[in-house]
Design goal:
Rossmann fold; Alpha-Beta Plaits; six-stranded parallel sheet; five-stranded antiparallel sheet
Length: about 230
């Protein structure tokens, strides 16, 4: 897929690097040449330009781009202007970053397809991670249902998926297991990437260092964890 990311702050740059590493084509733009230079080896294309300047933005391949993400977070006015401009230029799928509730209403009025709140979403993910010892990561589908990654409790090592009876006892679905592998990036920093083991099968034996990928109601996930001796706040 092809993406345009507007703004190379912490979120925009991380998103651009991640999408590029997954094989997507990313055009990242920012008004700071320093940021553009910093990520030119990590993101498919980086361009120094003003995202609120209609003349220059028109030169981007907007009609051929699958998703435009306006990730500007420091300047609410620039965020709104850039978002409105890409909407006017008929971006196929437009996503913008909300800074506060009033800003979100403005974005809704503009007619964006999706709105994201990285600080709020990050805080929610970290609240789960800090309050649950075995919690690794999560993706919230609704207020009640999530897909979560849970470091395997020691009590489950050596058991088969069938022995857990997660469907019957807790109304949960064990989708898969994965393990995290560590590697050094181009800056010499240690990073990690998931190695997915495939769809879980009834006869699969759970091993130490496995991470369980579980889908279900949050309260049922907590019930399951309590049943294997994990303290849940």
């Amino acid at each position: 897929m092809k993406y345009i990311i507007v703004g190379l702050g912490s979120f925009g740059s991380s998103l651009g690097v991640a999408l590029t590493s997954q094989g997507h084509e990313v055009i990242a733009i920012d008004s700071s040449m320093q940021k553009v230079e910093a990520y030119k080896e990590l993101i498919t294309h980086t361009i120094c330009m003003d995202a609120t300047d209609e003349y220059t933005v028109k030169g981007l391949p907007i009609v051929d781009t699958d998703i435009v993400v306006v990730a500007i977070g420091e300047d609410q006015g620039a965020n709104v202007m850039a978002t409105a401009l890409f909407k006017t230029l008929n971006a196929r799928h437009l996503i913008s970053r909300s800074i506060n509730p009033l800003h979100e209403k403005v974005l809704q009025a503009i007619g964006v397809d999706d709105i994201f709140h990285p600080e709020k979403e990050s805080a929610m993910r970290w609240s789960k991670r800090l309050s649950l010892r075995y919690f690794v990561d999560s993706y919230s589908l609704t207020d009640s249902f999530s897909i979560v990654e849970i470091g395997i409790p020691q009590a489950l090592v050596g058991k088969t998926v069938a022995e857990l009876k997660m469907d019957y006892k807790f109304n949960l679905k064990l989708l898969s297991t994965l393990r995290y592998e560590h590697y050094d990036d181009s800056f010499g920093r240690t990073q990690r990437k998931p190695n997915i083991q495939g769809l879980a099968t009834p006869e699969q034996v759970l091993q130490d260092n496995d991470v369980l990928v579980v889908y279900g109601d949050n309260k049922h996930i907590n019930q399951f964890l309590r049943s294997v001796g994990v303290k849940v706040h």
